[in-house]
Amino acid sequence: MASERATYCCVDIECTGQVPAYHDMISLGAVGVRPVPGGGRELGGSFYVEIQPVFGHVDPGAMAVHGLTIDHLRAHGRPRRLALEALSAWVAAETVPGTKPVFVGHNAPFDWSFVSHAYGVEGLPNPFGYKAMCTKSLAAGVLGLHWFDTNKEVLAERLALPPEDRAKKHRADYDAHYQALILLGLLAVQDRVARTTAPEGGVGSSGTRNASQAARARAEAASLLEGLSSDTWVVFTDGACLGNPGPSAAAAVLRGPGGVRLETARFLGRGTSQRAELAALRLGLALLDEAQVPAQAPVLLCTDSRYAEGMAVLGWKVRANADLVGPLRVALAGRPAARVRWVAGHAGIEGNERVDALAQAEVRRGG
Length: 367
Description:
This protein is α/β, with parallel strands linked by helices. The protein is 43% helix and 22% strand. It is built from twelve helices and ten strands.
């Protein structure tokens, strides 16, 4: 996968104005996001430098954002060339062997233009080459957002990140760290989509899945569940529909610490399979409330509906079923430690098979 070929360097800069070659880049922070053996990624090292101004042109509005002063920078900042040489050395040390460093910004064109210009005028090779990656654009594609909705506040909600620390915001080292968290979240979503849609390397679809794919699906589910902490509450949800639309039902099963086990199913009347899957997630959250699970407790909700996962936590655009999607998102926001993950249906995964049987039985009783 592409992720295994890259060491991402999340970069944020502060400046004295908006225009490279007229305004100065006066601070730069960077945080690595690197691949780890066996798959996945982790936060790497960090870098921060304050830079002496060269041009001296100042936009008061820009200076008010970051709070750095020209006097401070002249006294304590590094000369621009030395700052860039230090950044290059950090990039070389941070880059995992066998990968290439990738410049990542939020919004990349702005930060990239200042960094690239500085390397050019100093006559130094740019360690990132001539390419940059923008997390705003990545979020638009991965989460299905409009570009104007790819601000950090929206992404924090969609990716279940802690809110930004307002006291540290607009300091280049802190912003680079937060951007690295955003990148980790976006790449994780991208990986899940790639795994579930790959024709050979994935787990197929319930109607055409072969034995090998089913085994892979069970292994992935087992790995997911085995990696949970012992205090995690696990909920499987499923919807059923006789025809689409047709009589429908939702079901949920809860397994918790100490052997807690709850199950429920509800006939929904005439509806679609998508509405049934969304209703099933709400039913799972209701089970948590019934069991008096604290709002801060770690929770994993497993659904075999990619649509339900996308609507619940991946920020898919709401084109239908807004009456269910909105309240579902609000309910999930009330449980900040809850995650929603897709698992393969009809693949022999114990929790999924049980909740499917409950939903099927309920829809037949009601229908």
